[in-house]
Design brief:
Blueprint lengths: L4 E4 L9 H14 L6 H4 L11 H9 L5 H18 L6 H10 L3 E6 L3 H10 L8 E4 L11 H10 L6 E5 L2 H10 L2 E4 L15 E2 L8 H9 L4
Parallel strand pairs: 1-2, 1-4, 2-3, 4-5, 5-6
Length: 222
């Protein structure tokens, strides 16, 4: 197999949107005298509807809450923190190298299309990306293979000639099921998930280069 494409997850992989989400919800919990733990939030990382902090908080408190003001407050805080987030280390250089070598570049995300497209534009990365596939463009989100299958189909490459970069367990499972080699770059939330399905686990994209990814693609799948 020959490396022909790199497919990037978005949230938690290209940019740290997990921490703003956690902090903004944690502040809501603290306002009610309780705590949102990382062990709970890990179920939200990479999943669609994997963990609902509003329901969780109500269960802790034993009563219903009026979310008409709480949710807008939380969303505004989340956006404020998200705007402060920058591209994570090693991502942009890897995209630049891939573009220089004429490799195809995709983004495959469990978030909505507007969120991802807007984020890529804000971060100055959209020019590097050939295609963006999001959960609202397929029937089944990650960990189903649909998003990755559609991404490689749009990029016009075989799954075995592509590498997926992911931060979460559902993302790694999705890419693996679609036939891509998978590199996991966990954050403080997803490091608590089962990432053994990944072909390679690194601490940062700084540890990656095209030669290492090409070698991964050339290996026989386990």
């Amino acid at each position: 197999m020959t490396l022909a494409a790199i497919v990037f997850d978005f949230d938690g992989l290209i940019v740290d949107t997990e921490n703003p989400g956690f902090i903004s919800w944690q502040e809501i919990y603290q306002a009610f005298g309780t705590t949102l733990h990382i062990g709970d939030w890990r179920h939200a990382t990479g999943y669609v509807a994997g963990f609902d902090p509003a329901i969780h908080l109500e269960k802790i408190l034993g009563r219903r809450l009026d979310w008409s003001q709480l949710i807008p407050k939380r969303d505004a805080r989340n956006w404020e923190l998200t705007l402060q987030a920058r591209v994570l280390p090693g991502i942009e250089p890897l995209m630049r190298s891939a573009r220089e070598r004429h490799l195809r570049i995709g983004v495959a995300s469990n978030s909505g299309n507007g969120w991802v497209e807007g984020g890529l534009l804000r971060l100055g990365l959209r020019e590097f990306v050939d295609t963006v596939v999001t959960r609202d463009m397929v029937i089944n989100p990650k960990p189903a293979p649909d998003i990755y299958l559609k991404t490689v189909q749009t990029l016009q490459v075989e799954p075995g000639n592509a590498v997926a970069l992911e931060d979460s367990e559902p993302g790694c499972r999705s890419a693996n099921r679609a036939g891509l080699k998978t590199v996991a770059i966990p954050n403080r939330f997803s490091e608590r998930q089962d990432l053994t399905v990944a072909d390679l686990i690194v601490k940062s994209a700084v540890e990656l280069n095209l030669e290492r990814l090409a070698a991964l693609v050339a290996e026989q799948r386990r």
